[in-house]
Structure formats: C-alpha cells, structure tokens
Amino acid sequence: MIEIYLIYCNKLKLFDFELEINGSDMNLFLNRVRNIGKRLIDKVRNDKLRQNLLQTIPFWFAAFITGLVAVFYNKGFAMAEKLTTTIFNFHAWLLFIISPVCFIGSWWLVKKFAPYSIGSGIPQVMAAIDLATPKNHDKISKLLNYRIIIIKIISSFVLIIGGGAIGREGPTIQIAGSIFRKINELLPNWWPKISKKNMIMTGAAAGLAAAFNTPLGGIVFAVEELTKIHLSNFKAAIFTGVIIAGLTVQSLLGSYLYLGFPVVTNLTDYILIWVVIVAIIAGLMGSIMSKIMWFIIKWKNKFKSDSQHLLYLLFCSLSIVTIAYFINEGILGSGKSLMTTYLFTSVKYTHWYMPILRITGQILSFTTGSSGGVFGPGLSAGASIGSLVSHLLDLPSSDTNLMILAGMVAFLTGITRAPFTSSILVLEMTDRNNLILHLMIAGIVANFVSVIIDRQSIYDHLKHQYLAEILTEENIETTKNENSRT
After folding, report:
1. Which domain holds residue 129?
2. Among 4, 99, 323, 348, which residue's Cβ finds the most Cβ atoms within 10 Å?
3. How many domains would you assign to the chain?
4. What is the model's pTM?
5. Sign of the C-alpha dihedral computed for residues 398, 401, 403 and 405 taken in this order
6. Most confidently modeled of 1-10, 24-33, 112-121?
C-alpha cells in the first residue's frame, strides 16, 4: 500500500527521490511524508494568497477611481454653490430667472437620460444590493451604470446653481456604487469571481468615506444602513476600499476635516439633559420632513403629464428664490457655510425661522425629481435646531457647539434611521473624540422618537418604490416580447 502511494506521489512530482520500504527506512519515510504534507499546504496557501490578491485588486482600483471622481465632484459642487452666492450678492433678482431654468433643466436631464439618477442615490444602491444576483444583471444595470455617474453630477450641479438645497454626499454613494459595479463587470472571465453584493456595498462605503473624509463612517454606514450581513464576510475588501478612496481624496485635497475643530471644553453639568432635548426635537423634525417628502413623492407619482411636473418645478424654484430674496438667503444651497458659521464664529445663535427654512428648502429641492442628496442639508438643518434650542436655553458657547453637533446627529438619524452612522460621521468630521458618548446618546434618542412619525426611513420607502418600478418595467418588456413573437 505504501509502495503504491509512493509511486503516485512520484508521478505527481511531490518529491524527487526513490525509496524502498523496509523497517529501517520507516522513520525516513514518515519524515518525507511530513515534508510532502508541508509542501502541499504551502502550495494551497500560495494559491489562496494569489486568489485573494486577484480578488482584492479590483476593489483597490475602483476605490482609487472613486477618490478621483469624488474630488472632482467636490470641487465642482463647491464652485457651483459659490456661483449661486455670487449671483445672489450681485443681483439677487436674477435668480427669479435662473432658478426656474435650472430646476427644469436638472429634472429634464434625469428624466431624459437616466431616470434612476433621481434624488439621493442611496435608495438605488440599497435596491441594487437586494437585487445583486446573476439573474438580475439587467435590473441592477438600471440602478448603477456609467450614464448615472455623468447625469448625477451634471444634474446636481445645475440644481445647486439654481439655489437648490441639496448635498453631494448621497449622490457620491450611488456614483461610487456604479464605479465598483462596472469595474467588476469589466474583469476577464478567468479572473476569480467577486460577489456583486460585496462590490456594491464596498463602493457605497468608499463613496461616503470619500464624500465626508470619514473612513470609519463609511464602514459603519455599509454595515448599519446597507446590509445585515456580518462584517467578516467582506471586511478586508471594505477596509482597503475605504482607505484607498480616502487616501486618494486626501492626496489631492490635503488632510482635512469636513467641519474642523469646534471648541467643546468646559461643558456644564447638565449638558446631557440638553442633548436629549435637542435629540428629541431634531429627531422628530427629521422624521417629519422625510414623511412630508414621501407624501409629496407619492402624490407626484400620480401626475399624468409633464406639464404638471413643470408647474411643480416652477412652484418649488420660485418659492425658494422668494424666501431667499425677502426673508433669508440661508435657504439656498447645502448649508455647509451655516454649520461653519455656527461652530467657528461668534454668531452662535440663529434666527427662529432658520430651521424651518432649511427644512423647507430640502423638501422643495428633493421632491423635484432632480439629482441631489439630503445628507449635507440635513446636517445643516440639525445644526440650526441645535443653535436655536441653545439660544432658548441661554447656554454658553462651548455648550452651544455640542448642541449644534447633537442636532446634526439627531436630524440625520431622523432621516436615515442609522444612529451609529450619524454619530460616527459627525465625530470624524470634527475630531472631537471626547463627545462620543454625547453624540451616541443623541443618535439613539433620535432613532427612538423617529419611529413615532414613521417606522421606515425615506430611503426604505424609495427603495421599495424603485424595486416595484423595475419589476413593472420588466413585466411590460416581457409582455411586449411575447406579443411581438405572436
């Protein structure tokens, strides 16, 4: 039996010696067998290492491309927002002409060239993850593709020039998901297969990390918001993807924080009580805003002609410009300048109506059918709520900064229902590690009270809508094909 085994091993060239079995050679034989086993194990390990490397390279390359696109998007978005401010300061009345044109143009681009580039993009990524199986290739391609990348960017640029209260963070997530998915599709047939679901989830995480420069926030977002799969199933890919995307952004823009280093020292003894109060108010307001958005979107779905959409777009654009012209221009844009003003200047307290303006601007912009997210504007709305509550309570400056940050976490949680993602994002954007307890409390409290208004987030509602639309489109196409055959 041993001789047969040795002949087989020699044919496989596992060793290069001939051995005759006898009692004195048994120990030598056993040692040789151990060496053969070691060589086999080493060979398997090398193959596995090679396969793991081949599977990881697409994640690295896609993350690098995501970082480059995120930098371009960041720069372009900032320039578009600055252009709006310049127009308003030069001749504010011009926006009464520019805004309707931009709102209609942004909507038309989406409708004409990439219908699923509408809105934030996060619900589309969530839907794509649910559909991530080989048989659903065509369905996923409607949600994540090259055309969406281009239209997403252009449409949001046009809308922000018109004064839309939108952000680039959600769109960056769909853009990144599209990049990762297309890189996966371009791999040759001999390349080790990569899970479509893992690729899309990693793209979304890398996109958020690149948008906010918050790598940990990107990882938490992928786990908390996008999937229930255990982190160990894709941890290497998501970690490296997020890191490479973040490093690419930092190498081009420098090491920066989205908001900077607000002063939050010498907090008062009862600050946690005030944090809870802000969390309740901001969480409810975020959830109410999402509920209103979803109600309007369902109402608009009943529109039977483009003329109805055009009338709604005119109403939204002119409403925003009228408020900016006669009340306060703070309704315009993403609201990042408001956050930095509250946190880093002596102007700590806002007007009583500013939270209403920020919420109204988001509702009027997000429901137009154009591209644009609610992450950034949501943070600014939460910041204005924190500032207002702090003013009403007459809190000192350092406490006010914490209340602003807590409002940001709570309002974003009211929208996303992702308290840990919201907390980590704000924590990383400000590098205030001593506030982790306060921000976590704000997120958890806001998540708890948000359920009172709606048990699902706006993202969940939209995800189900997109899935239903894709299924309906597929049924229509199937019926057409069957009719053409007959």
Report:
1. 59-253
2. 99
3. 2
4. 0.85
5. negative
6. 112-121
Residues 200 and 302 in one domain: no
Phi/psi for 352 (5° steps) reads -60, -25
CA distance 409 to 440: 8
Q: Helix, strand, coil shares of the chain as percentages rounded to 5?
A: 80, 0, 20
Query: Are residue 245 and residue 276 in the same domain, yes or no?
Result: no
Q: Which amino acid is at 269?
A: D
Q: Exposed e or buried b for every residue in 49-74, given b needs 16+ CB within 10 A?
A: eeeeeebbebbbbbbbbbbbbbbebb
Amino acid identity of residue 351, one-letter, is H
Longest dimension (CA), the chain: 103
Q: Do 396 and 307 reside in the same domain of the chain?
A: yes
Q: What are 265-307's pLDDT values in tens digits?
A: 778 778 899 999 999 999 999 999 999 999 999 999 999 899 9
- 231 and 303 share one domain: no
pLDDT at site 254: 66
Task: Find the CATH number of the domain harbouring 312.
Answer: 1.10.3080.10
Q: List pLDDT tens digits, range 345-386.
A: 888 888 899 999 999 999 999 999 999 999 989 999 999 999
Residue 34 has pLDDT above 90, yes or no: no
Q: Angle between the 169-185 and 122-130 helix axes, to the nearest 10 degrees? A: 40
Determine the Cα–Cα distance for residues 481 and 122; give it in Å rounded to an integer. Answer: 32
